UniProtKB/TrEMBL annotation:
<keyword id="KW-0560">Oxidoreductase</keyword>
<feature type="binding site">
    <location>
        <position position="79"/>
    </location>
    <ligand>
        <name>(2E)-4-hydroxy-3-methylbut-2-enyl diphosphate</name>
    </ligand>
</feature>
<comment type="function">
    <text>Catalyzes the conversion of 1-hydroxy-2-methyl-2-(E)-butenyl 4-diphosphate (HMBPP) into a mixture of isopentenyl diphosphate (IPP) and dimethylallyl diphosphate (DMAPP). Acts in the terminal step of the DOXP/MEP pathway for isoprenoid precursor biosynthesis.</text>
</comment>
<dbReference type="GO" id="GO:0051539">
    <property type="term" value="F:4 iron, 4 sulfur cluster binding"/>
</dbReference>
<feature type="binding site">
    <location>
        <position position="228"/>
    </location>
    <ligand>
        <name>dimethylallyl diphosphate</name>
    </ligand>
</feature>
<feature type="binding site">
    <location>
        <position position="229"/>
    </location>
    <ligand>
        <name>isopentenyl diphosphate</name>
    </ligand>
</feature>
<dbReference type="InterPro" id="IPR003451">
    <property type="entry name" value="LytB/IspH"/>
</dbReference>
<feature type="binding site">
    <location>
        <position position="229"/>
    </location>
    <ligand>
        <name>(2E)-4-hydroxy-3-methylbut-2-enyl diphosphate</name>
    </ligand>
</feature>
<feature type="binding site">
    <location>
        <position position="273"/>
    </location>
    <ligand>
        <name>dimethylallyl diphosphate</name>
    </ligand>
</feature>
<feature type="binding site">
    <location>
        <position position="230"/>
    </location>
    <ligand>
        <name>(2E)-4-hydroxy-3-methylbut-2-enyl diphosphate</name>
    </ligand>
</feature>
<feature type="binding site">
    <location>
        <position position="200"/>
    </location>
    <ligand>
        <name>[4Fe-4S] cluster</name>
    </ligand>
</feature>
<feature type="binding site">
    <location>
        <position position="228"/>
    </location>
    <ligand>
        <name>isopentenyl diphosphate</name>
    </ligand>
</feature>
<dbReference type="Pfam" id="PF02401">
    <property type="entry name" value="LYTB"/>
</dbReference>
<comment type="pathway">
    <text>Isoprenoid biosynthesis; dimethylallyl diphosphate biosynthesis; dimethylallyl diphosphate from (2E)-4-hydroxy-3-methylbutenyl diphosphate: step 1/1.</text>
</comment>
<feature type="binding site">
    <location>
        <position position="79"/>
    </location>
    <ligand>
        <name>dimethylallyl diphosphate</name>
    </ligand>
</feature>
<feature type="binding site">
    <location>
        <position position="129"/>
    </location>
    <ligand>
        <name>dimethylallyl diphosphate</name>
    </ligand>
</feature>
<feature type="binding site">
    <location>
        <position position="129"/>
    </location>
    <ligand>
        <name>(2E)-4-hydroxy-3-methylbut-2-enyl diphosphate</name>
    </ligand>
</feature>
Length: 316
């Protein structure tokens, strides 16, 4: 049987960012150094395939510190944690390693600096997301106000409109965040923004690559987890850029082939916590059903690399 023709537009950059790569290495090196089990507070990154792979090596994932035996090491996820978490670990004399992405840590430092200058913070982010919880937990309660949409800005009750600064979750949509920032600046003209954009380079690059292919594809598949903020934003960016069908899938088995019936072109990208092996799995699934041509669309080159903490580079 002759397979129908299909062009796959493979977005680049895609997949692992430097912060995710570093966080995974931290867990692997911790297991090598201290042996299994090593505990990880929250999923190290939001991807089931990655988490399952680390479980097989000896990582145990928990949600709270009190689930960790005091004599075993614990790692804090790439999303960051409130200040109370490492303080509690120190109180219990636990060995811990902080795998917070350095770009998230930059936002934490920024928030502290503004707080020390007497400013109240406004955070643009998603309620309940681990990164938002971690960032808001850097300062005393009430010092960080959370907004998600321009409409939220209208309802903000602040201490002093002249003494405000804003920060953002690193994995948001660049376009959506711009609308919220505009609303903040319109209502609070004196509000201070970050010295450098809080949204991380990887989020920005992956969204730009989706925009570059959105106009020439019939469908977009984003490989990523349903609890991955940056992956969900890629779906939204694809739709906003004109792609009529954009879907988040964790693996090839989740592809809705009926929805793709009659298509001639598909874009493929992956969230920052999705490994390339899952991209290849999806490409292979298309090759089994279509006479597939793969075209790479690269909009940026990434050479960022973050070192793992010194404690993991020292002998046991």
């Amino acid at each position: 049987m002759t397979l129908p023709p299909l062009t796959l537009y493979l977005a680049a950059p895609r997949g692992f960012c430097a912060g995710v790569d570093r966080a995974i290495k931290i867990v692997e090196l911790a297991i090598q150094k201290w042996g299994a089990p090593v505990y990880v507070r929250h999923e190290i990154v939001h991807n089931k395939y990655v988490v399952d792979g680390l479980k097989a090596l000896g990582a145990v994932f928990v949600e709270e510190l009190d689930e960790v035996p005091p004599d075993r090491p614990v790692i804090f996820s790439a999303h960051g944690v409130p200040k109370a978490v490492p303080a509690a670990a120190e109180a219990r004399q636990m060995v811990y390693v902080d795998a917070t992405c350095p770009l998230v840590s930059k936002v934490h430092i920024e928030a502290e600096r503004h707080h020390e200058a007497g400013l109240q913070m406004v955070m643009i982010g998603h309620a309940g997301h681990p990164e938002t919880i971690g960032t808001m937990g850097q300062l005393p309660e009430g010092e960080v106000l959370l907004v998600e949409t321009p409409a939220d800005v209208a309802g903000l009750v602040v201490r002093d409109p002249q003494r405000l600064a804003y920060i953002t979750q690193t994995t948001l949509s660049v376009d959506d965040t711009a609308a919220v920032v505009a609303a903040l600046q319109a209502r609070f003209p004196a509000i201070i923004g970050p010295h450098k954009e809080d949204i991380c380079y990887a989020t920005t690059n992956r969204q730009a690559s989706v925009k570059a292919i959105a106009g020439r594809i019939d469908a977009l598949l984003v490989i990523g987890a349903p609890n991955s903020s940056n992956s969900k934003r890629l779906v939204e960016v694809g739709r906003a850029a004109g792609c009529g069908y954009a879907q988040l899938v964790q693996r090839a088995a989740e592809i809705d082939w009926r929805a793709l019936d009659g298509i001639r072109s598909v874009g493929i990208t992956a969230g920052a916590s999705a490994p390339e092996v899952l991209v290849n799995e999806v490409i292979d699934a298309f090759r089994a059903r279509f006479a597939t041509t793969v075209e790479l669309v690269e909009t940026a080159k990434e050479r960022v690399e973050f070192k793992v903490p010194r404690v993991l580079r020292e002998p046991a």
